[in-house]
UniProtKB/TrEMBL annotation:
Name of the protein: 4Fe-4S ferredoxin-type domain-containing protein
Highest taxon in the source lineage: Bacteria
UniProt cross-references to PROSITE patterns, sorted A to Z: 4FE4S_FER_2
Annotated TM spans: none
4Fe-4S ferredoxin-type domain segment(s): 8-37, 42-61
Family matches, as Pfam families: Fer4_7
Amino acid sequence: MEKTSKSPILYSSKEECCGCALCCAVCPSQAINMEYDTEGFLYPVIDEHKCIKCKKCLKICFFPKKTLFKAERS
Ligand code: SF4
Ligand code: SF4
């Protein structure tokens, strides 16, 4: 994977995230907050100002397709 200065994308659709909050738990910078969507389900949101791009959140997540970074999607 290429190095990037962008924060990871933890999921590109809600089918790729069950809201388990493991990513939030392992983040060494407390950069991930679990926030409610409009239907009342929790999803992780990364604070890019706190994120140090260590990718631990991507590695702990058991859902596939966790290699996307914002720079790669644009
Ligand atoms: S670890 Fe993966 S499935 Fe769990 S909340 Fe984070 S992104 Fe969603
Ligand atoms: S890349 Fe590292 S610092 Fe950034 S949100 Fe993921 S675990 Fe936290």
